[in-house]
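Researcher: Let's run the pair from yesterday's discussion. Sequence first, then tokens, for each.
Model: Starting with the first of the pair.
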Amino acid sequence: MIVAGIGCRKGAPQQDILAAIAQALQAAMLSPDRLDLIATAAEKGGEEGIAAAAAAFGCPLVLVPPGELKIAGEKAVTRSERVVALFAVPSVAEAAALAAAGDGAQLVAPRRVAGMATCAIAVSGDEPGENP
């Protein structure tokens, strides 16, 4: 399973989120049609740009509860002090992707920034993360 984790500033437009996803997928050398889920922090559930991006990809949107986000955040590889202060995780994008991808998940693209949005790509433990 391939998951795009999203972080963003309040009111981030859909185009920034789509651009961040595109950058992260390209960094992971994955085709957009391989994306299975889009995930974000539960607190971001009201962000219209994230919901619109998920709809554009035809992917379910998973809202990760704070406890799960914090546990997965321990495996994050990038860090934003602003995000730590707001969400108690180093990267919402990375933590959301890892949490939604499940046990054994691995980042294949750390956080990428586009405008007001960030995206990281994680794969579940049984996914090689490569295009066949």
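Model: Moving on to the second of the pair.
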Amino acid sequence: MTRVILFNKPFDVLSQFTDRGTEGSKRATLSDHIDVPKVYPAGRLDRDSEGLMVLTDNGKLQAKISNPRHKMTKTYWAQVEGEISDEALARLAKGVELKDGMTRPARAERLEAPEVWDRVPPIRVRKSVPDSWLQLTISEGRNRQVRRMTAVVGFPTLRLIRVRIGDWHLGQLQPGQWRDA
């Protein structure tokens, strides 16, 4: 039977089980939170991003989740610098030009500040610049894609939380917690 684990990856945790960084460095990894043999992450989440990761022991399912060819949607909550404009949301929805080409159209909408856990360390706040939240659903998985998309429309991402992958949702999982799907 296929095992599927949903994990809420905390900020500053690598989305792999071992740290292949410089010798002597000890960065937090999945193995600091998950002690389950023979499961592997289906896709990645940047070290400075938080939220849902799916892990499985099924190689075909892992490929289906992580390969952009399958167009599995991923939904993110992004806290951005500035009050997100209608124009920026429309551009994100149409797709934006990044250095590695056009993105596919996305679902982009304003989001009231969600009730989420405090991030440690907290995001940088500038009193003179407001921030806002948006929900962005994409069907690709380029490197740092959401951060690059919000930056290209003029609203740099301050905090990024993935809340959904396909039909799997983060639910009430707190950072560092996991459960079987």
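Researcher: Give me one sentence on the second I can quote.
Model: The domain at 4-68+171-180 is CATH 3.30.70.580 (Alpha-Beta Plaits).
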